[in-house]
């Protein structure tokens, strides 16, 4: 029996899960991660460690399957990149992720596990570069390209072929006499550095937010809803993996598959090598680390795969990753440079972020002159002082970080950095909530907070107001033309003409763009309010369930949590926002100015299972999980993975465990599969 987890561990667990969920949403759906892969992997590892400490058998955690449970197609858990507006496609063979490590000993442990399974002294592997792009699966029937799909949730992905048709190196046909009848070929879409720079330069000109790195831009491009827009951006593709294949015996090894890809003239990865032992694989991994910057695609590690297909099948996989492959990730590049200054930026939520100004230094292909210092505690912990020589790292090519100080290089007696007690912009007191690392400016009217709110409101992901980027927002706030968000809608052309850089046409265009935003979709309005924890995906869920801002304002915490995708943290944040009279008068004022704050879609009430949430547990025999989910969703219901008071029914098959117990405890109605089937029949015939 597992030990009762200490409340400290439990709250850390809850915190980590919420964080990981948020980062998954940012990475997979929005293609805008805010932390590096390394930091993300660290959170994941900490979560795994705590979970296995407090619940070694995996009995009480959300995921029903531990690493040793055989996986059925419905039980894959690899994140989810699916977005609204895309048609989905079910993979024939699930598209899994890879177990990651930064540790040499983990790699040798992986080899040991396989040796034990196969009772062999040495194992044949293939070592390949790990490409840092966007996973894609191409399907070919009788040699003809049928479609291209993202990984999605591993079982079902989004069809993105329409955004890839301009790729010259994407083979439309396999030209050979010896081809399988059907094949899924997996690979990665990426963007070359030059193209990334070109697009960001254009975006600077248009005042649009910049992409942090080529991967995010590639991910954003494959998920554009307009293929014409995608066509303007040069993407590349490279293939390395085999999914389903008919006949399945067509390839008997990974290396044979690589060779076929080459003969079929697919763009393939370089530096692929067949090796006969873990030691040789390790040598190869080390060589790759030295060469990787020379390849056209961004490479962040090596993937080591069992060569024999037969053995791969025997080794099998967990719900996340195959047991026959592992990714060894390289540490990101580091450089030493001088810290010239520490400046403080105030964001839209008042968060004060310290930023390091550096003597410019070349790092992983770009010149770096700014780096993140995270927060006051981090500066203090690392004892970072202005004038120090510091180590800078560009993890995953996202935001460069100051990792540590070279203390020996501190010759003079420089004072330690004192984090100010007052906002550097408006001079109001900085405050911080207990347990939070971030200091915040306490004045909602602080000009930089306002600038941040307007920029966010106008950004692509919210109201999408063209030409209302950072530079214009700065002018509007500094000139006091706008001192509240709703005043945007009172701007006149003549006022803009007083500002530098505005002419008749540009002023007219901006006024028109602001005017047009009044009728933007409701979810964009919700998102634009910048409510803590409420991003695009939650805003869409809310807009589907509430007809206008007044019904949102009248909702209780339980009304929010009843929505699939809205958890307690989000619900409490919503409740806090809509209970604030200033926010309500702001919304009223927006409405009076003609901003449409309601949904133009019909709120779902007609389908029989609207508002009902199901949890499926144990093994189902009549339906597959996916079929049961599809059935429930087609009738307007939702399927959730965890049981709570909000759950309407738990459908329990043989082998159901902790979820069934929880349902009993919470008095949630339980159906076996036969009861569930007749329940559906009754509903449909009503
Ligand atoms: S094999 C079931 N090989 O990395 C096997 N994946 O972090 C899984 N990736 O989901 C894929 N380079 O998108 C494989 N040479 C390579 C790869 C590679 C990049 C991606 C892939 C995977 C992700 C996991």
- β-strand number: 22
Tally of structural domains: 6
Q: Helix share of residues?
A: 25-40%
Taking the sheet with the most strands, its summary is: 5 strands, mixed
Termini Cα gap: 47 Å
Mean pLDDT: 88
* CATH hierarchy class name of the largest domain: Alpha Beta
Walkthrough of the structure:
The protein is of the alpha+beta class and 686 residues long. It folds into six domains: 1-73, Helix hairpin bin (Helix Hairpins, Orthogonal Bundle), CATH 1.10.287; 88-329, DNA ligase/mRNA capping enzyme (D-amino Acid Aminotransferase, Chain A, domain 1, 2-Layer Sandwich); 334-431, OB fold (Dihydrolipoamide Acetyltransferase, E2P) (Beta Barrel); 447-519, 5' to 3' exonuclease, C-terminal subdomain (DNA polymerase, domain 1), CATH 1.10.150; 522-603, 5' to 3' exonuclease, C-terminal subdomain (DNA polymerase, domain 1, Orthogonal Bundle), CATH 1.10.150; 607-685, Rossmann fold, CATH 3.40.50.10190. Helix content is 35%, strand content 19%. The chain has 23 helices and 22 strands. The strands form six sheets. The chain has a five-stranded mixed β-sheet with strand order 2-11-10-3-9. α1 runs antiparallel to α2 (37-54), α11 (447-458) crosses α12 (470-478) and α15 packs across α16. Residues 58-74 have low confidence and may be disordered. The site of 2-(butylsulfanyl)adenosine has 14 residues, from β3, β8 and β11.
Features:
Helix Hairpins, binds 2-(butylsulfanyl)adenosine, five-stranded antiparallel sheet, 22 strands, 686 residues, 19% strand, D-amino Acid Aminotransferase, Chain A, domain 1, 23 helices, alpha+beta, OB fold (Dihydrolipoamide Acetyltransferase, E2P), five-stranded mixed sheet
């Amino acid at each position: 029996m597992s030990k009762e987890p200490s409340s400290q561990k439990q709250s850390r667990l809850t915190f980590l899960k919420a964080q990981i969920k948020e980062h998954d949403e940012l990475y997979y759906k929005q293609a805008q991660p805010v932390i590096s892969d390394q930091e993300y992997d660290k959170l994941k590892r900490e979560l795994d460690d705590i979970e296995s400490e407090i619940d070694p058998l995996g009995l009480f955690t959300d995921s029903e399957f531990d690493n040793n449970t055989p996986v059925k197609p419905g039980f894959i858990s690899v994140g989810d990149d699916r977005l609204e507006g895309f048609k989905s496609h079910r993979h024939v063979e699930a598209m899994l992720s890879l177990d990651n490590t930064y540790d040499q000993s983990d790699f040798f442990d992986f080899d040991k596990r396989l040796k034990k399974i196969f009772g062999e002294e040495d194992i044949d592997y293939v070592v390949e570069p790990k490409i840092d792009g966007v996973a894609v699966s191409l399907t070919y029937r009788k040699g003809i390209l049928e479609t291209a799909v993202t990984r999605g949730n591993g079982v079902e992905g989004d069809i993105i072929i329409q955004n890839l048709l301009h790729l010259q190196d994407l083979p439309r046909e396999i030209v050979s006499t010896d081809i399988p009848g059907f094949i899924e070929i997996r690979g990665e879409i990426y963007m070359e550095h030059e193209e990334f720079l070109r697009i960001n330069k254009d975006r600077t000109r248009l005042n649009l937010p910049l992409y942090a790195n080529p991967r995010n831009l590639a991910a954003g491009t494959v998920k554009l809803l307009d293929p014409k827009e995608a066509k303007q951006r040069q993407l590349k593709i490279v293939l390395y993996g085999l999914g389903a294949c008919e006949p399945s015996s067509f390839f008997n090894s990974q290396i044979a598959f690589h060779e076929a890809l080459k003969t079929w003239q697919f763009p393939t990865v370089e530096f692929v090598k067949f090796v006969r032992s873990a030691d040789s694989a390790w040598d190869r991994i080390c060589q790759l680390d030295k060469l990787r910057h020379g390849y056209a695609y961004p490479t962040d590690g090596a993937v080591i795969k069992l060569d024999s297909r037969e053995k791969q099948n025997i080794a099998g996989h967990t719900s996340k990753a195959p047991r026959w492959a592992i990714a060894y990730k390289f540490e990101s590049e580091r450089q030493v440079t001088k810290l010239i200054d520490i400046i403080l930026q105030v964001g839209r939520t008042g968060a004060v972020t310290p930023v390091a100004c550096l003597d410019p230094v070349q790092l992983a292909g770009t010149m770096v002159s700014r780096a993140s210092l995270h927060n006051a505690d981090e500066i203090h912990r690392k004892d970072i002082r202005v004038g120090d020589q510091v180590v800078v790292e560009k993890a995953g090519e996202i935001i460069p970080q100051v990792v540590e100080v070279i203390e020996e290089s501190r010759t003079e007696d420089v004072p330690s950095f004192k984090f100010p007690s007052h906002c550097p912009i408006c001079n109001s007191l900085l405050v911080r909530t207990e347990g939070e690392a971030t200091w915040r400016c306490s004045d909602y009217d602080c000009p930089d907070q306002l600038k941040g709110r307007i920029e966010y409101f106008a950004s692509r992901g919210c109201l999408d107001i063209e030409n209302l980027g950072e530079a214009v927002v700065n002018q509007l706030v500094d000139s006091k033309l706008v001192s509240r968000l709703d005043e945007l809608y009172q701007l006149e052309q003549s006022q803009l003409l007083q500002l530098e850089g505005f002419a008749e046409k540009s002023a007219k265009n901006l006024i028109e763009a602001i005017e047009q935003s009044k009728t933007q979709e409701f979810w964009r309005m919700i998102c634009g309010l910048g409510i803590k924890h409420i991003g695009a995906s939650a805003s869409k869920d809310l807009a589907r369930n509430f007809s206008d801002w007044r019904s949102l304002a009248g909702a209780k915490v339980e009304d929010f949590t009843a929505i699939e995708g809205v958890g307690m943290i989000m619900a409490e944040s919503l409740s806090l926002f809509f209970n604030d009279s200033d926010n309500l008068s702001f919304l009223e004022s927006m409405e009076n100015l003609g901003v449409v704050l309601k949904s133009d879609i019909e709120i779902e009430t007609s389908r029989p299972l609207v508002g009902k949430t199901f949890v499926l547990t144990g093994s189902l025999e009549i339906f597959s999980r996916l079929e049961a989910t599809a059935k429930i969703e087609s009738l307007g219901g939702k399927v959730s993975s965890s049981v709570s008071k909000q759950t309407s029914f738990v459908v329990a098959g043989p082998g159901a465990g902790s979820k069934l117990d929880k349902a009993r405890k919470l008095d949630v109605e339980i159906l076996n599969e036969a009861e569930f089937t007749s329940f559906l029949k009754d509903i449909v015939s009503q």
